[in-house]
Amino acid sequence: xxxxxxxxxxxxxxxxxxxxxxxxxxxxxxxxxxxxxxxxxxxxxxxxxxxxxxxxxxxxxxxxxxxxxxxxxxxxxxxxxxxxxxxxxxxxxxxxxxxxxxxxxxxxxxxxxxxxxxxxxxxxxxxxxxxxxxxxxxxxxxxxxxxxxxxxxxxxxxxxxxxxxxxxxxxxxxxxxxxxxxxxxxxxxxxxxxxxxxxxxxxxxxxxxxxxxxxxxxxxxxxxxxxxxxxxxxxxxxxxxxxxxxxxxxxxxxxxxxxxxxxxxxxxxxxxxxxxxxxx
Length: 280
Fold this sequence. Notes:
The protein is an alpha/beta fold. It is built from ten helices and ten strands.
């Protein structure tokens, strides 16, 4: 009996140790799991045949700079899309989609967060990417002379969470478009690590579902029905929580990164209608 009790105690102790180790691992590595930057560009606007200006946007109080591209439309009074990319690699991996907006006749401004691409400033964090987005917005207004009512804030995946946060603080913007965006990092963590106390462990939270009710501008939510990374139900939750003018576009067969390619006609029509109705 004593041996059986001892073995049981040892087994429980091992399980507790493994569980605690899993919690410690998630807590220690969450930034690396949330942010996956790369230094090298996959391509550039020049290689894709687009005219552009390299931009360097000051951010923070340590002399850091965000590196990015301004891709001008052919018309001087064109709407502008302020593009916030997802967690993976850098702006070079987002040029194909940026080009779609450019071909629709829009200016496009996209910049890497600190820690991504050629931007300086060390590793990214939730607080820093929010500050980075604000710096990009101020650059658009003050260095490019774009009026807020001419600018649509766009974000893909993690960039959608960043775009939502920025839009909450700038109700003067023309509108907000999110694509493949999650409700919160806690919800994503519970989806992937449901056996762990995610709420206690997270310090990168991205609470978009809590922020969406604060929006005071029109919103277009886009999501692929076959998205295996961010469940489509999250888009429906964001849409349901949004006040005011809003639209939910679900692309049948669209995955996390290819909704525009899969359903281009309805994607194009939804975006152009949204911009036409809200940019003044």
